[in-house]
Amino acid sequence: MSLVIKNLHACVRGGQEILCGVDLDVPTGEVHAIMGPNGSGKSTLSKVLCGHPDYEVTAGSVELNGQDLLAMPPDARSRAGLFLAFQYPVEVPGVSNANFLRAALKARLPEGEELDAVAYYKRLRKVMNELGMDPKFSSRAVNEGFSGGEKKRNEVLQMLMLEPLCAILDETDSGLDVDALRIVSQGVNAMRSSFRSFLVITHYKRLLDYIVPDVVHVFHQGRIERTGGRDLVDYIEEHGFDFLKKEDA
Amino acid sequence: MSSTTPAIPPTDARGDFSFPEKHAFDAGYGLTEATIDYICDAKGEPDWLRDFRKRALAKFRDMPQPLHWAPQEIAALDFDQIRYYLAQGTPARKNWDDVPDDVKRTFERLGVPEQERAFLAGVDAQYDSETAYKNMREELAKKGVIFVNPTEGLSAYESIFRPWFGKVIPVGDNKYAALNHAAFSGGSFIYVPKGVKLAQPLQAYFRINSESMGQFERTLIIADEGAELMYMEGCTAPKYDTATLHSGVVELVALPGAKIQYVTVQNWATNVYNLVIQRGLAMRDAEIRWIDCNIGSGVTMKYPAVILQGERARGEVVSISIARDGQLQDTGARMIHAASGTTSNIVAKSISIGHGRASYRGEVRVQPGATGCRNHTECDALLLHAESRTDTYPAITVHGDSAAVQHEASVSQVDEEMLFYMQQRGLTRAQAMSLAVNGFINDLVNEFPMEYSVELRRLIDMEMEDSIG
Amino acid sequence: MMHTHDTNAVPLPDRLNEDWRFGRPHVHARELAEILEHAQAAELRGVDLPSGVQLTPCAAEALPSIGSEALMRQALQIGPGQCLRIADGSQLREAISLHSEVHGGQVQQLRVIVGAGARLHLIEEHEYSEESMLVCLRRYELMPGATLRLEQRELGSGNTRAFCISSCICAENARFCSLSTHQDLAWARHECTLELTAPGAEALLLSANRLRSEQCLDMRNRQLHSSPGCKSRLLCKNTLTDRATAIFGGNIRVQPHAHDTDAYLSNLNLQLSPHATVHSLPMLEILADRVRCSHGSATAPVDAEQLFYLQSRGIPLAEARRTLEEAFLADVRLHFEQF
Question: In the list A60, B372, C252, C270, which could disulfide-bond A8, CB 3.0-4.6 Å?
């Protein structure tokens, strides 16, 4: 049971290839980090996995617990257990956070079954409280007028509510101050379990001090260039990504 | 070029002089079949053109003035009081020294030849109906660039000229299109061959010297695949007691990948009706930009258009209008998105001074089946006095669910706090106002070639001196 | 400007009438004239009118229209109208409902007078039976300091049509807010002239409409500022599916000397079908300086990023689109409630 990516190639629709043969296996229960310089294609990988319409998969396969993700539309991928905490969460004016999450949860129920509204709100308040979010946020429109940190916190709230099998955190640490980073990390760590996997995409070591990965991958020029343990994080922190260039040469 | 030479006459005063008429050809007042025969005979035109003009005349007579939407001021135009053809009767001179003295003095006062010598790739100056002087650097001619008047265009280059002539703006398009098709003389025909990119702009001057003269120049510019050019025109006329009419037609054809920029700075005298039709056809990946500045004339109606005919074609209109006492600047833009992936942009700024009235009139249309089109339109108006007027009349039509079309317009005045701040620093109110007004159009003025933008700013300074100082 | 047909005694709006631009007057005006020949006067029923409120018959009176003067004059000749009068100073807590059912071809005339300092929330509801058509002439007069919150609901069914000409005149410090919605009308033309006649008057015109199948909604609005120091806002939002058409004409007119005007109009359309059509004509005519006037018009499909975001949370595509459609219109109601 795991997220298995084999030889994944993808390009901007009608444009340049950005993923050039990604191979990655994230077994359940593990946290993998992907690090890499700007423009290496890290964020594209997360979008392609979720089925963003701007990108076209030209080769390869992606399976989540044996299900062929690439054959599914984005919403089915989500219901299959994949979650992306967006690097730039989208503002959705006119739709309140509470209604948004309710619609997402309801979509996971069998046809015709209704969500227990009382239990839902109770749980929502509890999780918001854990994340240190003002209860008023639930009635505000999704991400509209939120600060960068508030948006990131909102992403984590959604993750906690939707309980995915595999969660991708795309630069979730950017825009967060230290306190927020700690709260968000606590939320993620509380979700770590033997039946869930995480893919943490980040540019910096900082987040990985809080969410400690089992495996670290270095992404470069559209593929995974190197894989190692936690010590790879420290190596990059010290030496940067320059070693990748030397390999090029 | 010498920095003291203005590119355009800064005020009416500069263009407001005239020389005694001594035309070899004068078709008299009014437009009839006989007038057309007179023009055709004088120009030695082929029979197809004579028939063409006469059919256009019939259309012109049939069509009503578009008073259901146009400014009511055009109802006062008396087409029988216009002289439709005046010419010196000598072919256009290639050498400045050969130009008749009075015409030469006119253009010297307007600063044409200096610029040509110093800077411009080619100049075509029109005096009343016909081209008085033109020159084009030899190197351009060697590259196969054609820059002639339409009479010469249709006789010497018929195979290039005729397929596009009247195709972008057909004769029945509207009353004034028909009028121009019937009476046109002078103007420019330009062809830039495949892949030729002109580094220097081509330039034309139009001047009405004679009273009651109608000027009906006709310009057709064809940029072949991948070609690029910029064309600039300036217009002036002396002030007469009776109204004069300028009703030009400009057709642009940008073949795949071509780029055309067309710059107009219009400073006609305030009794000129300036009713001009400008339209470009942009094929696949081509780009057409109209950069338009209207300062003079009594009534101007001008809405430069781009028909985005080929995929990914781009269109842009940048427009500045200044309406002073007694002036109506009814200007705008049209963008017709007829192919997928086409984009367009309209930026229009107007300034109304005293009793002046500036109107923006526009059309943006996304045709059925054209997908992924984008338009952004922004109109800003500045009102300087209590009696000043501004209007905005856009019409937006969008078919289908893949286009993003956005229109914004605002009306404002110069911020009193800002004026006070500047005055406190020692500027006169007029100077402060001038700075503020210049600031308002600053981003657009930068779109104009340098010598035009310098002149535009000077004009605004003088205008502020007059109206406030 | 009116142009006359030689063949018909009634001068109908034609293609050259700019107020009917894109509105296919040659199709609709003639039909309208025919319906008016056989139309009946319709009566409004007031439900439990409180004290201080009178609904009485009243004589017809001309009112400003946008391009349909002749049709309106003809409609005025059919039957008497009604007048709803709210006494000066009445503060009505509960909304008043005026309800009517439309059968066949009907003409309705209503005059609403809100007395000085009075406050009223009025709901007008027209329920259309199949194949019916209503011609509705309404005039709202707000005396100094009056407040009127007005909901106009046109509830069509199938092939029904509505032609409504409204005018609203606001005196000093009067406050007017209207929310009009059109549901399931095959064709509706809505003309509304708002005139702010004395300083301090303020108005908010709102409309939210979901258009589907072959429906056509043709809205024309005029915000006429004839006095200095007034404020008007207009927001018209439409969503379009199938082969629907939305036409919006709006005009902010600031008369000479109406300085310190603050006016805004906005027309926003969400296109949900490759076969739907939007025509938008947002206009300004400003004849005085020291004003703040602006307008905006935007037509766009559903935001792809928003759609993806909803989908990425497991919401199916069709529902995600519906959610965004509803969200698009949601704030209009909110503005009304906040007024």
Answer: A60
